[in-house]
Design brief:
Length: about 120
């Protein structure tokens, strides 16, 4: 029995996406006939390299991804960016104040027109 709509979310372990991406890239490059055996050989080769060099590609890829996403998410803006933001805020405020002044003028004109009509009627 299956559940057609499930709100269960699974977290992919860190580094796993990088491993699968590397495997996919090699499969596309080599075009093997037997993909499962190619995958087994690929991961065996990765394990041998990791044991010889003490360098784990999955761990390295995780650190790179983490650094990329975290640095951009919490990046402080430069002086140029702050100046651009400030100029944009001033333009927005000026446009809004202009809008308010135009609305006020419309109200005043309506009021003057109504006064003139009442004076003409009297």
């Amino acid at each position: 029995m299956s559940i057609p709509f499930s709100n269960t979310h699974y977290r992919i372990p860190q580094g796993f996406g990088n491993l699968l991406e590397g495997l996919t890239r090699e499969i596309l490059r080599e075009q093997p006939d037997n993909i499962p055996s190619f995958a087994a050989a690929y991961f065996e080769n990765l394990l041998e390299k990791r044991e010889k060099t003490n360098f784990d590609l999955a761990e390295w890829g995780t650190k790179v991804d983490d650094r990329f996403y975290n640095n951009h998410a919490f990046k402080e803006s430069s002086e140029e960016d702050k100046e651009k933001e400030e100029n944009a805020a001033v333009k927005i405020q000026a446009a809004f104040r202009g809008y308010l002044a135009r609305e006020e003028m419309k109200k005043m004109k309506k009021g003057n027109l109504q006064e003139e009509k009442t004076q003409e009627n009297n």
